[in-house]
Amino acid sequence: MRTGGVDDAQVTRWAQDAGQGDQQAATAFIRALQDQVWRFLSHLAGPGEADDLTQETFLRAFRNLPGFAGRSSARTWVFTIARRVAVDHVRTAVVRPRLASVPDWQAAAEAAGAITAGADESVTLHQLIAGLARDRREAFVATQVLGLSYAEAAEICQCPVGTIRSRVARAREDLATAWQLDSAPGHDRRTG
């Protein structure tokens, strides 16, 4: 699989070199994976959390780079870390709810005239994906949004390939049903 024009073997070499202290390899390693890790985390935890969680993912990865043995691609290894970061974030959020309320960003954007029809559909699709069960969302985002193979997604999610295939199929069914309900005549996306 290629990552932003760079193959996995090269990304894995950069990870191994970075683990031995090569700063240029460390920079190349981050640049090769940062956007995809952000997208993955954006779908798992939300776009507002993705920056911090991406940073946490790479901090954890760099702490563990000296021990990275290369048994899997560095990309798969980093996505496994990102998934754990997202799970940890959700657990923490459940235990410690936010004190301040978050403003309704969609209402604010609509009031400012910032949302167009295409952007509105994109926001809706993002919301529908966010509404999937966690295991289905992880499998769907990894394979359908990021383009990882089913085998890579299975390694990241720590389950058999058949389970990933099943989760993706069910996620597609859930999304199709939700999209039809959302697109039904008389349905207002802003009010549900």
From TrEMBL:
Pfam families: Sigma70_r2 (PF04542), Sigma70_r4_2 (PF08281). One of its GO terms (molecular function) is DNA binding. Residues 124-175 form the RNA polymerase sigma factor 70 region 4 type domain. The keyword Kinase does not apply. It comes from the Bacteria. GO terms for biological process: DNA-templated transcription initiation. Residues 30-92 form the RNA polymerase sigma-70 region domain. InterPro entries: RNA_pol_sigma-70-like, RNA_pol_sigma-70_dom, RNA_pol_sigma70_r2, RNA_pol_sigma70_r4_t2, RNA_pol_sigma_r2, RNA_pol_sigma_r3/r4-like, WH-like_DNA-bd_sf. Keywords: Sigma factor, Transcription, Transcription regulation. The keyword Ubl conjugation does not apply. This is RNA polymerase sigma-70 factor (ECF subfamily). It comes from Micromonospora taraxaci.
